[in-house]
Specification:
484 residues, alpha/beta, Aldehyde Dehydrogenase, Chain A, domain 1, Aldehyde Dehydrogenase, Chain A, domain 2
């Protein structure tokens, strides 16, 4: 049986307690994972803290950034290993993992290394009473030990989205992967050793959240900052933990994102984009679409085309080229998603397609499969219109005016993302300005330039990352005033 151990101060270490890693597509145990104790977490944070004043802290910027490029190159060299680990962990189709998850995970190291190299700070000349003047300039310094709390839905991509800028800025890190998806973090530890990243710079502690590894890490007094992607309830708990010591947090949390489709849209593009935003990664994408508003003249046609598209998504093994959808991450999560499927019907939804568990081959019957599901007929006050489900489902509603759909889209506790489908340039700009979200896609979805700000509003998050905005979180900006 494969063993996934914690990685502390450059070494893989055994644990007193282990838990099972189960593949979501067949329900079988594929590995045993070492559960980090409080002393393990303390050792990891202590190692990270010590590395700040060691060779990592004194390493020239050019050398540090070259090392991150080497990390990306080694990930590319071991591309198949990372893809296989990610497929085993999340069970999604190989084409998704090989074209999105792993390549973007590697790119995060190179892109943020280049950002750090090319972003300048401030410089001001000022007058003084004696007429000699003074110079002021700013410099960036790392915040220290960064706790990186990772989700299970796109584990490698979202882990490196944090690690790239954190390490490029000179911080050291302690990563806590989701207990559901520990394998790529362990592989990345091998990569760090292979390219010579100093001991203590990168550490991995596996385990669970409350009263376990996650809580031990987020409450540790030597952790200087905490970055988290996951559900809003967990983010709120982390924010409370960070209050002790007044430590900065970056939180990317839940979403109940809307797609708004106007009658003048490119219908083919809108259908293709909305099918992806509703069902990609089995709907387990924080930026995914669970509410779809369609202008009434094209409503019926849009619903029927979405139905046909969803029904063509064949569930299957990740390596099967015909597979269009993988399973949910766990039985626990499937129970949650199916409870929303039942609740939608109980509250009066019309099930356009799906709503249950697909028939799978005997070898896959132990996996956590669900059908892609589309509903119509509910009011915006219905439960499945208000709460994040995080499954392959969406509700499609008609609307009549731009003003109406703006109010309906904004009437939600979340504010992460929206997609607007229209060929009217003026309208797209108006919509982008009034939608209460952190990112608005016009005639696209999941298109990301990593130099741009990313984050949510309302209960979808705090802070922005990406480009220089990541530097604002992962560094302390200090002013130097020189009297001439």
């Amino acid at each position: 049986m494969k063993q996934i151990r914690n990685f502390i101060n450059g070494e893989f270490v055994d644990s007193a307690t282990w838990f099972d890693k189960i593949t979501p597509y067949d329900g079988k145990v594929v590995a045993r994972v070492g559960q980090a104790s409080q002393s393990d977490v303390d050792a990891a944070v202590t190692a990270a803290h010590g590395a700040l004043s060691g060779s990592w802290g004194t390493m020239p910027l050019t050398e540090r950034l070259a090392m991150l490029h080497a990390v990306a190159d080694e990930i590319d060299r071991r591309f198949d290993d990372f893809a296989a680990a990610e497929m085993s962990d999340i069970g999604q189709p190989a084409h998704f993992i090989r074209h999105v998850d792993v390549p973007r995970g590697a790119a995060n190291f190179k892109i943020f290394a280049d950002v750090v190299k090319n972003v300048s700070t401030e410089f001001f000349e000022m007058a003084t009473p004696d007429g000699r003047g003074a110079l002021n300039y700013a410099m960036r310094r790392p915040v220290g030990v960064v706790a990186v709390i990772c989700p299970w839905n796109l584990p490698f991509l979202l882990m490196t989205w944090k690690l790239g800028p954190a390490m490029a800025c000179g911080n050291t890190v302690v990563v806590k992967p989701s207990e559901e998806t520990p394998q790529t973090a362990a592989l990345l530890a091998e990569v760090m050793n292979a390219v010579g990243v100093p001991k203590g710079v990168f550490n991995v502690v596996n385990g669970f959240g409350p009263k376990d590894t996650g809580e031990f890490l987020t409450t540790h007094p030597k952790v200087g900052a905490i970055t988290f992607t996951g559900e809003t309830r967990t983010g709120a708990a982390i924010m409370k933990a960070a209050a002790d010591g007044a430590r900065p947090v970056s939180l990317e949390m839940g979403g109940k994102n809307a797609a708004i489709v106007f009658a003048d849209c490119d219908m083919d593009a809108a259908i293709e984009g909305t099918l992806r935003s509703a069902f990609a990664n089995c709907g387990q994408v924080c930026l995914g679409t669970e509410r779809v508003y369609v202008e009434r003249p094209i409503f019926e046609a849009f619903v029927q085309r979405m139905k046909r598209g969803a029904e063509l998504m064949k569930p299957g093994l990740p390596e099967d080229p015909a597979s269009g959808m993988g399973p949910l991450i766990s039985n626990e999560h499937r129970t949650k998603v199916l409870s929303y499927y039942r609740k939608a019907v109980a509250e009066g939804a019309t099930v356009v397609t799906g709503g249950g568990i697909p028939d799978m081959a005997p070898a896959l019957s132990g996996g956590w499969w669900v059908q892609p599901t589309i509903w119509t007929g509910l009011l915006d006050s219905a439960t499945v219109m208000r709460e994040e489900i995080f499954g392959p489902c969406c509700h499609i509603s008609p609307f009549d005016t731009e003003e109406e759909v703006i109010l309906r889209s904004n009437d939600n506790q979340y504010g992460l993302a929206s997609a607007v489908w229209t060929t009217n340039l003026a309208r797209s700009h108006r919509m982008a300005g009034v939608l209460e979200v952190g990112i608005v896609w016009i005639n696209s979805w999941f298109l990301r330039d990593l130099r741009t700000p990313f984050g949510g509003s309302k209960q979808s998050g705090i802070g922005r990352e990406g480009g220089v905005h990541s530097l604002e979180f992962y560094t302390e900006l200090k002013n130097v005033c020189i009297k001439l």
